[in-house]
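Thread: quick sanity check before group meeting

JM: Hey all, I'm pulling together slides for Thursday and realized we never actually wrote out the predicted structure for the chain we discussed last week. Dropping the sequence here so it's in one place. If anyone has concerns about the input, flag it before I start.
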Amino acid sequence: MRLEGHVAVVTGGTGELGRAVASAFVTEGARVIATTRHAVDGGSHERLSIEAVDLVDEQSMLGLAELVRERYGRCDILACCAGGFAAGPPVAEAPLALWQRMLDLNATSCFLASRAFLPLMLEARRGSIVLVGSKAALHPFKGGVPYSVSKATVIALTQALAVEVRDQGVTVNCVLPSVIDTPANRAASPDADVSRWVTPEELAETITFLASSAARETSGAVIPVYGRA
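JM (edit): ok, ran it. Output follows.
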């Protein structure tokens, strides 16, 4: 198993993508801590625990890192799968709240998670961080400026952080999905050809590869996982 003995944190671990990534990590042998916004009953299993965390609250994220340190003494993998999408009016009419919400959900959450767990990785001189951007970061669409910019920020964070830690045994990479085949996206686009979309499981496979030792020489990569969309 590619992740045997590893400890992995998956933010947004109860969302469609997060669940697929957490499941893939467990299948590959990792112990996984998945985050959710709200407390859940029965959230712990043999190799999977679910913790309620506010991903855009500094102290909440630091608290999760301390919990992982106390419980396992290490963090080998951080997969930032949490995020949000919202389209809106053009910039001339766009509310500041929408801009701030997209930056918080998609970019600030990745920054705070990376900052919280990097100390554990740097102490061990090993680790893998995988962030989730979007095709929209490179190919914006009308009404999506806040979203596209927030995902472009994820790309910049990936590449800047990869340079910062490249001599300390930590890799940082980013995947760019197009439209992910989820119930919510199907409901929002009932006439779409969903066979062209990428499934959570397909995206999870790429993330698992980047988290594994097979990708130890890959860092700063921005990898499109578009399906045919």
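AS: nice. The mean pLDDT is 95. The longest helix spans residues 96-124.
JM: adding both to the slides.
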